[in-house]
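Handout, page 2. Input:
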Amino acid sequence: MNRQLVLSLALFATGAAAQTAPTPWPTFLSPEARAGLAANDARGADPTTLSERRARAEAIQREIGMPRLNRYKVVMKEDVIAGVPVRVFTPASERAGGPVLLNLHGGGFLVDSGSITENAAVAGLTGYRVVAVRYRLSPENPFPAAVDDAERVYRALLRDRPSRRIGVYGTSAGAILSAQLVARLRETRVALPAALGFFSGTADLSANGDTIARFANPAVADAVAAMYAGKRNRADVALSPARGNLAGWPPTLCIASGRDFLLSATTEFCRRLDVAEVPAKLIVYDGLPHAFWSYIDAPETDAAFAAMARFFRARLRGIR
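Output:
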């Protein structure tokens, strides 16, 4: 795969080239949301290499994420669990022996666009420790490397607590990986987490939903999926869990937004979970782009994180 295509995919993965507004952003969005969208569009010239794209993604993570750590009174620590790099988020309100959440960050499998910004608020609002897996990235490490890393960390958490005290969640590529992790755990007969947060993702890499064509470039989306899948058939349920049996899946919260290029995929997975009689809830934030909570500070972002926290508290509260 040539360097320019890989860079285009990295830009797609982080929303820099993926999300388009076919009409002006709605006037009902908060002033903070509109300002955040404008700031995202004005971040400057695109990087010329994938390593530069990754460096910029990390800089944005710290630019947006560090104030969130302070706001929510959360301490972040770089660590290694089961040989896998992680970031551990410990809230000031953490209860000894309480539940733990495992996060898989977004970034199209190519960059880390969420390991700080996705987690500070969730840790602070739940009072639960969050472990963000800094899994191996594509194109150097295609499937199943990232899922292998996630499974190793999950199994390590299981050694310290029962699965009923573990929640798993992710945004975008992280949502995809979260579903793939659950599929892996089912296949290997490992106890499933008590709750799954599936935020703006897809559980079927073999097909594109309607909103891909409306708000992004289907060819680039296919290239992202193909690069990540490597030699595996994208219809394999290990890559596309929605194509398999979903009975017994963990209770799942699905979140997307009205101008999200993965809105169709998120809602379709939630529908399939419902058909399988899995407790599943869908929340859609009107008029906003893909994974907006990861890079915009606004009342809408506060509402999204509050919904995530309510879900995990309801599913994990008081569990010993």
